[in-house]
Amino acid sequence: MVLVCGREMPEKDETKIFSFEIPDSAVDVHYTPEDFYEEVLSLIRGAKTRCKMITLYVGTGDRERQMLRALGRECNAPERTLVMDYLRGTRKDHKTGASSVSLCRKEVLHDHTGEPVRNPAELKFFCSPMYKGSGRVFLRERQNEVLGVQHMKAIVADDTVLLTGANFGGSYFRDRQDRCLVLQNCPDIAEFVSCIIDAVGSASVDIGDVQHGQHHDAPKSKETKKKLQEGFGKVYDKFRDFTADSSVPEPKTAKRCVVQVGVQCGYLNMSADQELLWRLLEITGEGEGSRLVMASGYANPPPGIEGMLASRPIDVIVACPKANSFYKSGGLSQYIPDMYTTMEVDLMKRLTRGTLHEYERPYWTFHAKGIWGYRSTGASPVGCLVGSSNYGYRARDRDLEMSFLFRTKEGSALSGKLQKEVDNMMEYSSTVHTPSELLTARNIPAWVQTLTRKWLKFFL
């Protein structure tokens, strides 16, 4: 890594940022899992020309089955694609034995009688090039996902784009707090995201080639990396006229907003997270009162991101242990909430102008991710980051992410919608006045703290 204008960047930086201007009114924000689920179904069923989806995995419950049936049997769009992560998608549910692969075969590729459907949707599984070496041989199912996954989450339905940090299924459709922004009738952005999904799909395994799962059917790492690089290269060439300058232009009027997008992929030297955060800081300026709000279910920023977060007063919203999806899980996973508490305490020691808030809502978990930027006089944000990234070490080095920056004007309709996201999270959050006391108060074992700081933080 090298420092460029205060940013920690790869020695060979391949980051490309693309810029689009759209009507402020084109952006809808959904605030609940129920609204998210209904929007997903509506987009799939209403698509006429294309329906392309990308996610980490699809759950195995009734709502996920309904969603997959909509894609396989009810959507009339001639182009239908679903891209998932290979390792997560082939992992079997420990209760039912089902996986994303088995569910897709049944609900997307076959009709209600069990007969194959005509013109089936494409089902692709991306296996990270980081899945290699001794980890490929010795790490078991679920453990091997620490090496790296496909983590992008989006839907393109005709010229509409759904951006989210949520996966398509399970508690994300019921009681897991996340984010969902929908860009209506934005053909340029829709085509860009569609091409990104195609690029990942071109480097993926077709469902027909997934027979045994895990390392048995996984492609070779070098081949995947080469195909992915070539795929992104074609997208970047196609959209070179949309390549962004080093700054974010101000929207022409309060009724317009600027959207910038990039790919985060450490093993391809693409660092969109840092680049877009740097641009968000430029938007907010350095005036007195300029501030940030960051939400992450897994707050573990590497030095480059952390340094920029430390440049402003910041409110950090995280999951309390009960709102962490690993709470009361079995085996070593039961210590994951303690590991994140350890990292959050250490982070707040370094963010000297930061305030920690823990989200706790009965029977809910917390997975929201994003960074909101405010100007010195601002009561509502003038910019916001949204996407699949948690802005941690994993996102920087191991996972495949897509990140978006929205720039709007203070007081605009979109600014108000983005502020409502923050207000909704803060409603269920409590301020931790002395974060350093959490380690003792929660009886976190010393070995957990040591292991987290020395090694595990690079994989979580």
TrEMBL record:
SMART domains for this protein: PLDc
GO molecular function term, any single one: CDP-diacylglycerol-glycerol-3-phosphate 3-phosphatidyltransferase activity
Catalytically driven reaction(s): a CDP-1,2-diacyl-sn-glycerol + sn-glycerol 3-phosphate = a 1,2-diacyl-sn-glycero-3-phospho-(1'-sn-glycero-3'-phosphate) + CMP + H(+)
Keyword Repeat listed: yes
EC number(s) on file: 2.7.8.5
Cellular compartment(s): Mitochondrion
Domain PLD phosphodiesterase: 146-172
GO cellular component, one term: mitochondrion
Alphabetically ordered keywords of this record: ATP-binding, Lipid biosynthesis, Lipid metabolism, Mitochondrion, Nucleotide-binding, Phospholipid biosynthesis, Phospholipid metabolism, Repeat, Transferase
Mitochondrion is among the record's keywords: yes
InterPro entries xref list: PGS1 (IPR016270), PLipase_D/transphosphatidylase (IPR001736)
Pathway involvement of the protein, from the record: Phospholipid metabolism; phosphatidylglycerol biosynthesis; phosphatidylglycerol from CDP-diacylglycerol: step 1/2
Function comment: Functions in the biosynthesis of the anionic phospholipids phosphatidylglycerol and cardiolipin.
PANTHER family: CDP-DIACYLGLYCEROL--GLYCEROL-3-PHOSPHATE 3-PHOSPHATIDYLTRANSFERASE, MITOCHONDRIAL (PTHR12586:SF1), CDP-DIACYLGLYCEROL--SERINE O-PHOSPHATIDYLTRANSFERASE (PTHR12586)
Protein family membership: Belongs to the CDP-alcohol phosphatidyltransferase class-II family.
The protein's name in its UniProt record: CDP-diacylglycerol--glycerol-3-phosphate 3-phosphatidyltransferase
Gene: PGS1_1
